[in-house]
Amino acid sequence: MPLTALPLPDAELAFDPQWLLPAQADALLASLRDTIAWQVHRVRLFGREHRAPRLSAWIGDADAAYGYSGTRHVPAPWPAALGPVRERLRDALGVDFNGVLANLYRDGSDTMGWHADDERELGPAPVIASLSLGATRRFVLKHRTCADVRLAIELPHGSLLVMSGATQQHHRHALPRTARPIGERLNLTFRRIAQPG
Ligand SMILES: O=C(O)CCC(=O)C(=O)O
Ligand SMILES: [Fe+2]
């Protein structure tokens, strides 16, 4: 399916609920789940360090070190299964992504808190391509200053959400916990580190 724009003021969002065919998405999930060296990252919140409530890995080109949540992450090499995905994204979006943050939400109690992907090394208007695999979870965006400007999107297996333009400047986003009994979800956010190092 094609990417279609989602309406949200001060944001630029494009969504394809089925960017990967179900069989492609199944194969990618099975492969990445087992080949990525999952870690518990530390996150800094209000000056205190915590264990992140999910498993993560920073993957990328050798020079694409990435600092977020107060830690500098040296990239793990690209798993072979991500090569074709990276190429297809480059062709579709015209962005040569050099890194990807992988997150594994083991069940509904694993989450991602409110944040923007606005680290300096991503540049002023980053294109962030978010590919979701596994259980469908709700992704929410809210405007930093206009409380009634917000959007919730269900992100199913094989879907692609692209955030670009001023989205990170004006909005925060999160993946809330859910009490529903649901399975694992693996999310990949492809990024371009503009100033490696
Ligand atoms: O899991 C998701 O859909 C969101 C992940 C995210 O916001 C991030 O990795 O920065
Ligand atoms: Fe994010």
What can you see in these coordinates?
The structure is a single chain. The protein has 197 residues and is mostly beta strands. The chain has a single domain (4-38, 50-191), classed as Alpha-ketoglutarate-dependent dioxygenase AlkB-like (Jelly Rolls), CATH 2.60.120. Helix content is 15%, strand content 39%. The chain has three helices and 15 strands. It has helices at 22-35, 83-93, 167-170; strands at residues 4-6, 12-16, 42-45, 48-51, 55-60, 66-68, 71-73, 99-105, 112-115, 128-134, 137-143, 150-155, 159-164, 171-175, 185-191. The strands form four sheets. The chain has a seven-stranded antiparallel beta sheet, covered by helices on one side. The chain has a four-stranded antiparallel beta sheet with strand order 9-14-11-12. The chain has a two-stranded antiparallel sheet with strand order 3-4. It is globular and about 40 Å long. The termini are far apart. The model has no long low-confidence stretch (mean pLDDT 94). The structure holds 2-oxoglutaric acid and fe (ii) ion. Fe (ii) ion (FE2) is lined by residues 115, 117, 173, 189.
